[in-house]
Amino acid sequence: MADYDFDVLVIGAGPGGYVAAIRAAQLGLKTGCVESRETLGGTCLNVGCIPSKAMLHASELYDEAASGKLAKLGIKAQVELDLDTMHGQRRDAVKGLTGGIEFLFKKNKIEWLKGHAAFTGKDTVQVGDRTVRAKNIVIATGSSVTPLPGVTIDQKVVVDSTGALELPKVPGHMVVIGGGVIGLELGSVWKRLGAKVTVVEFLDQLLPGMDGEVRKEAAKIFKKQGLELKLATKVTGVTVNGDKATLTIEPAAGGTPETLEADAVLVSIGRKPNTEGLALDKAGLATNQRGQVEIDHDFRTSVPGIWAIGDVAPGPMLAHKAEDEGIAVAENIAGQTGIVNHDVIPSVVYTMPEIAGVGLTEEAAKERGEVKVGKFPMLANSRAKTNHEPDGFVKVIADAKTDRVLGVWIIASVAGTMIAQAAQAMEFGATSEDIAYTCHAHPTHSEAVKEAAMAVTGKPIHI
Ligand code: FAD
Ligand code: NAI
Question: How far is the CA of 270 from the centre of ligand 2 (A)?
């Protein structure tokens, strides 16, 4: 490797990049990782998955106590919100986990090149005043917030997800633009802490990409929780005056405009791949129409020796998808066979109840052929009922002829945990009968997965 500085240089230390770097080092490759943030871990650990879950967990406990849910279980408490401490535990979680990645880098002898990387050639990258040459370069630069044309994010009144995690006080009225994952998770946080929350969604349903029945049921549940939903509605303007915002909205199909007054506006209409300032052209690369770096099945770009993974590459923008691609790309670079099955990537919305799915929606499965569907309500699951968590259901979609499971959708308090068995079953090519005849511990929420699988052949026990 005479004049190469590294066997592998990873650009970006998010869940895609840091995992790729660790696996490459484990495989004996000399590895460096460029990261421009002050801390490792990318969007996920710094301003995404982890801090949002810290706020979701704490606000859920607050809501259980403050709204009288605990009192119903015989637990009477005088509750007071200490938002500063809540933010403190969020920051502690981030600090602990990002520090953990720094420890893992040292343990695996990965060099962290601090600064912004830009290509200067097919195998060279400039980081600050240093130029490094690498045999393999992995682009793992992630994504950032999609701006809404004409709306300026000031991180005070008009915030993106990062600003919404850090609001110093509970807004009186928060308007969320975009009823996707971020809008519903962070909207839920501030609703639980006392804000009135209105979600303005352009489409006629929340959560695009999820199973149709799940989307409808989710809307019902969020309405019941007090979230105001304005579906099939578009925002045509936002003006800020001091610490208030005025939004102009109108039906998506056109119609009479109206205005909404807000103390905070969260813009959460999606994320876009990060390639700005990377000088991809110097490496002979270009982005596709969606701004992503195109790759083949093995994560190779069109330029030999340059690879791409995670949010910057096509596919769902999820941390576990990025991580699995990180492992696979390093294994491919090392000459092994790294594979990610993109048909079986679970997705979870961490609201209460949680919403999770893996594989095909019922709509997509029906487009491919005849299906059988089994459903089981959480209300009939003994553990959920006992825990006063009646909302939701499990739905198993199987091929009508082969019985092979094509998709599983769950709304339940612990849907994010329950979906793992569905993903594993699908990875092993399971039939609904395989799940139905697997012994599930009692009493667990997971028994609802078994019952939904039994319902595929019309034979659940408890309904
Ligand atoms: P990123 O995590 O975005 O990391 C890329 C890194 O590259 C960044 O740190 C960036 O600073 C660095 N970088 C970019 N360009 C350069 C450059 N030129 N030079 C040097 N460094 C550079 N996903 C889930 O699966 N579960 C969740 O619960 C979840 N919650 C989320 C909550 C929020 C609020 C947000 C915003 C996202 C959430 N996500 C969640 C999505 C998840 O964070 C992303 O899918 C994941 O972080 C993508 O990983 P990545 O490694 O591709 O990129
Ligand atoms: P999203 O794509 O999930 O949702 C955006 C929503 O905004 C969609 O419903 C879309 O129809 C709507 N929209 C778009 N333009 C609009 C407009 N002008 N007016 C009103 N509505 C509009 O994107 P979101 O929530 O910003 O999250 C970005 C990504 O981050 C997600 O796709 C997901 O991959 C990731 N993420 C994952 C989480 C998880 O796994 N739990 C949590 C948070 C984020």
Answer: 4
Asked if 295 and 253 sit in the same domain, the reply is no
- Same domain? 20 vs 106: yes
Q: What is the pLDDT of residues 377-435, one digit of tens each?
A: 999 999 999 999 999 999 999 999 999 999 999 999 999 999 999 999 999 999 999 99
pLDDT at 2: 55
The Å distance, Cα 148 to ligand 1 centre, comes to: 20
Residues of the chain with pLDDT below 70 are 1-2
Buried b (16+ CB within 10 A) or exposed e, 107-135: eeebbbbeeebbbeeebbbbbeeeebbbb
Decide if 442 is catalytic.
yes
Q: How many CB atoms lie within 10 A of CB 11?
A: 29
- What spacing in Å lies between the alpha carbon of 181 and ligand 2's midpoint? 5
Structural domain contains residue 35: yes
**Same domain, residue pair 137 and 282:** yes
Q: Are residues 328 and 357 in the same domain?
A: no
142 near 19, Cβ under 8 Å? no
Distance 49 CA to ligand 1 centre (A): 9
Write out residues with Cβ below 6 Å of ligand 2.
148, 177-183, 185, 200-203, 208, 234-235, 268-271, 316-318, 347-350
CATH code of the domain covering residue 192: 3.50.50.60
Which ligand 1 atom is at minimum distance from the Cα of 49?
30
Tens digit of each residue's pLDDT (9 = 90 or more) over 37-64: 999 999 999 999 999 999 999 999 999 9
Report pLDDT digits (tens) over 216-239: 999 999 999 999 999 999 999 999
- Whether 202 and 220 have beta carbons less than 8 Å apart is answered as no
Ligand 2, atom 24, lies closest to the CA of: 270
Assess whether the C-beta atom of 161 lies below 6 angstroms from ligand 1: yes
pLDDT at residue 250, rounded to an integer:
97
**pLDDT at res. 81:** 98
The DSSP-derived string for 316-357 is ---HHHHHHHHHHHHHHHTTS-----TT---EEE-SSSEEEE
Classify residue 151: in a domain, yes or no: no
Contact 269, 278 (CB under 8 A): no
Identify the domain containing residue 56 by its residue range: 6-145+272-333
Catalytic residue among 388, 442, 445, 462: 442
Tell whether pTM > 0.85. Answer: yes
